[in-house]
Amino acid sequence: MASFLGIDTSNYTTSVALVEEGRVSANLKKSVYVAEKERGVRQSDALFCHVKNLPVLMEELGKLPELTAVGYSARPRDMEGSYMPCFLAGELLGRSIGAGRGVPVYAFSHQAGHIQAALYSAGVLEWQEHPFLAFHVSGGTTELLLCEKGEIRKIGGTADLTAGQAIDRTGVRLGLRFPCGAELEKLAEGVKPAKARPSVRGLTCHISGLENQTVKMMEEGRSKEEIAAYTIEFIRATLEALTANALELYGRMPVLYAGGVMSCRIIRESMEKKFAGAFAQPEFSSDNACGTALLCEKAFRKEKEKK
User: With contact defined as beta carbons under 8 Å apart, do 256 and 285 qualify?
Assistant: First the structure.
């Protein structure tokens, strides 16, 4: 049986995954430690955590099958100059296992892994045969992408804060533990949000205004629930406007939503209803190595076909 190991060491999560004959058979992850009341972590601390987390995850994964190939996330995006030191931990493990097993090793971007995991989880892998739009929305990224012929091209997104940054900054101010998305969504459940007026022009958005507005709401004595609901509504309305503008510009095509912020049920249900958008299941929305393992299999089989 062909088996492919995937490794991803993003800024906040250490992940390993195993894909066997096109099916994800293992999806393990461990969060990078973030101190209470902090809104992030330094790269040096993230790298240190990955070095500690990877042996634990590999021990949990257990004895590996006869591997066919290994894939790892080497950079944030598929663009020149894209680099973060935290990905060196995954490269170290991936290349070492590949050399020891004598199998091919492939490097991918973290973003490409997110998109592949979302396609797999949503059951729409066939979308890769034609152009489609993809949103990658997380703590480090809020980008609109055009995916075509295996290439990922950024065509829009935020000009300042990412959606995840805005959510986490608001959440920490409300006393929530970083990362704050899941707790913020719980606070917002069943609360009718105040009307949001997102700042969107064409395919570019500005999210920094949301932080100013939530600070003002706190000063006015608004409840945590109201503030949480407004925060999610602002992000939802922003994504809705960006999606509508992209479809008007590029024509009707499938839309994929990936990244940790896209695990929010409130946002997902809205985008599914308005645009028939495809979403990853929650465990495939947050950072994971499944997409990297799937890309590894895809690259290996494509290389084999050429020979």
Answer: no
